[in-house]
Structures are given as C-alpha cells and as structure tokens.
Amino acid sequence: MAETVILERTAVVRHGRRLEYFTIAWNALEGLVAIVAGAIAGSISLVGFGIDSFIEVTTGSVLLLAGLLLNALSGWWWADPAAALIMVPIIAKEGFEGLQGKACDDCGSCAA
C-alpha cells in the first residue's frame, strides 16, 4: 500500500514538472511570436506585450527553479510551495491592475 502511494506521488510530481516546463516554454514562445509579429506589423503595443511576457516568464522561472533547487539540493520539502506562495501577491497585483485599466506612470494617454 505504501509503495503504491509513493509510486503515485512520483508520477504526479513528474507530471507537474513536465507541466511547469511546458508552461515556461509556451510563454517564452508566446513572447517571441508577439515581438516578431509586433515588429512586422509596426505595433508598439504588441512588442510591449511580448517583452512583458518575457519578464513574466523570467520572474516565474527564477522563483520556480529556486524552489525546486532548494528542495532537491537541501531536502527542504517546503521550499517549492514557499516559492509558489511568493508568486501569489505578484500575480494578484498584476491581475488587479490589469482589471482596473490603470495608465502607466510615464504618460496619461496609455489608459484604455
């Protein structure tokens, strides 16, 4: 029974890591496509979206990999969940600002 639980947990962890790696790759590809399409179309907004995607994927990747490395190298099982909890306020702040449609600090004409 305990052996089955360990095998199931291992399979779930492996699946979760694959999903994390896929998400990182997908978001990086999305940013690249947005930058190229924006450059071709002459759209500064699309280029900005692509750059923003790269910033988000870099930030998320650093936190994710830091948690995974601390878990793997030092055995701190709580490091990966702690890294995830650190991301929550960042994600919430970005979400709320996006929903409110706040203008950037540099110009008042950016508001939708």
Largest sheet: none
Rg result:
18 Å
Strand content: under 5%
Q: Number of helical segments?
A: 3
The outline comes out as elongated
Helix content: over 70%
What's the total count of β strands?
0
Describe this entry's structure for a reader.
The longest helix is centred in the first third of the chain and has 40 residues, at 2-41. The protein has one domain (14-96). The protein is 83% helix and 0% strand. The model has no long low-confidence stretch (mean pLDDT 81). The chain has 112 residues and is mainly α.
Summary tags:
mainly alpha, 3 helices, 83% helix
Fold blueprint:
Layout: H1 2-41, H2 44-74, H3 79-100
Helix pairs in contact: 1-2, 2-3
Brief synopsis:
This protein has helices at residues 2-41, 44-74, 79-100. The chain is an all-alpha fold and 112 residues long.
